[in-house]
Design a protein that fits this description.
Elements (H helix, E strand, L loop, with lengths): L30 H7 L7 H14 L17 H15 L14 H9 L15 E5 L11 H4 L5 E5 L10 H6 L5 E5 L14 H15 L5 E6 L1 H15 L4 E7 L12 H8 L8 H5 L3 H14 L9 H20 L9 E6 L10 H5 L15 H4 L3 E6 L11 H14 L1
Parallel strand pairs: 2-3, 2-4, 4-5, 5-6, 6-7
Antiparallel strand pairs: 1-3
């Protein structure tokens, strides 16, 4: 066993304190146990450098080499800043999703020390599939799954328009320990990669990836926002070849329509115009590549994006975003009769409801209202629409994601 995994101090507890979801409640553990038993000091030069980076990015006073990034408050934006800083410091390119495999400094330092030359890219280690959480190896009847990380209770989470799967980290932690969780991330973030710009093409690629780790299913799919549309197309393809898709979980997913389609110029002007100085004539006159540079310049100068993220990182992320925005605009939803469970976010929906949307609203004023719930019942007669009192991003954030995780647990276990 490596030195960093050997406990420096042991504490005896009569029982583990648990939260409402049956997970260990770390906040209820004795302070001495949290502060003393968990801290492991850095030893190597790489570990000490990484500790300094983590403390600066996370705003933490004391970080040990076995402290978990996500448990320290890490999230997707901080993860981008963290990896960008590490890449500059060590002259190496590391996929952002690597944080799921190396959530602490110790294995990350080992990975960096094993790189053989400056500027080395880890694209050879890149994969569409990201293991977010393996099922508990002690689960009865999971002898095969304990090695592969896949069993009959495996959930595949599909990226949204941003392309990353870090947003699913809290959901993965909240799910039952006997459920394996994989994420499917988009291409376009590593050097020499170009993003896909068609939802059908994405689904074709992702089905092949899913089949590699889970050849026979059954399949449970999950997608937030545009990820829900990709999940449906994956399910459609799996069912067409005779595979069993038990359920598709949608988290505030919109069906594209004339009222919510936005091209890249409209997006820059209408969506970003509130935070950056922009006018339609200027954006229209720019090429696609120049628009990306224009948006990055304005977002950085306005303070909306951290200045410590590399230009290359920002450019690749904006390119992926706009390619996926185009994919959403071009997507045509057709009838689907498989099992769908859709959580619709209600926060901010009523005040933004105008025009035709108001005429389509047949709910009583005392019932929940969401912008993402229109059109689904006309195209999917089997959809189970549920409402959750948060906004579009909140469906994957505490405490609301805990409510969703409980429902997914129940459906998968049954």
């Amino acid at each position: 066993m490596p030195d960093y995994m050997i406990p420096s101090r042991l504490f005896e507890l009569s029982q583990w304190p648990l939260n409402a979801n049956g997970k260990i409640d770390r906040q209820a553990l004795p302070i001495d146990a949290l502060e003393e038993a968990q801290y492991v000091a850095p030893k190597s030069r790489v570990e000490k450098t990484l500790v300094d980076i983590w403390q600066r990015v996370l705003g933490a006073e004391k970080v040990g080499v076995t402290d978990d990034f996500f448990e320290l408050g890490g999230h997707s934006i901080l993860a981008v800043r963290l990896m960008s800083t590490i890449e500059r410091e060590f002259d190496i390119q590391i996929p952002l999703a690597s944080l799921f495999q190396m959530q602490t400094i110790a294995p990350l330092a080992t990975f960096i020390e094993q790189q053989t030359y400056p500027g080395q890219s880890s694209e050879d280690n890149w994969s569409y599939l990201v293991r977010l959480r393996s099922a508990n190896a002690s689960v009865e009847g999971d002898a095969e799954g304990s090695d592969s990380g896949v069993n009959e209770k495996t959930l595949f989470c599909i990226h949204a328009v941003g392309g990353e799967v870090l947003a699913y980290s809290t959901l993965a932690r909240e799910l039952s320990s006997d459920i394996s969780v994989f994420g499917l991330q988009a291409r376009g973030f590593m050097a020499e990669q170009s993003p896909l710009s068609d939802i059908g093409e994405m689904a074709d690629v992702y089905v092949a990836q899913i089949k590699q780790v889970s050849p026979s299913g059954p399949y449970y799919l999950c997608g937030q926002s545009m990820g829900g549309l990709i999940a449906i197309e994956i399910a459609r393809r799996l069912r067409s070849i005779g595979s069993r898709v038990e359920a598709v979980f949608l988290l505030d997913t919109y069906i594209p329509s004339e009222t919510n389609k936005v091209n890249d110029v409209d997006f820059i002007v209408e969506k970003l115009g509130a935070i950056i100085d922009v006018d339609r004539a200027t954006v229209n006159a720019l090429s696609a590549e120049a628009r990306i540079e224009f948006v990055i310049d304005r977002l950085v100068s306005s303070g909306s994006l951290p200045a410590d993220i590399s230009r290359e990182e920002l450019t690749s992320r904006m390119s992926v975003f706009l390619a996926h925005q185009h994919a959403f605009e071009q997507y045509k939803m057709v009838d689907y009769d498989g099992r769908l469970i859709h959580w619709c976010a209600t926060e901010g929906a009523a005040e933004n409801t105008t025009g035709d949307d108001k005429q389509l609203d047949t709910k009583q004023s005392t019932q929940p209202r969401a912008k993402s719930d229109t059109l689904w019942t006309s195209l999917c007669t089997t959809v189970d629409q549920r409402y959750i009192k948060t906004d579009h991003e909140g469906v994957l954030q505490a405490p609301y994601v805990g409510e969703i995780a409980l429902a997914i647990n129940k459906i998968i276990k049954n």
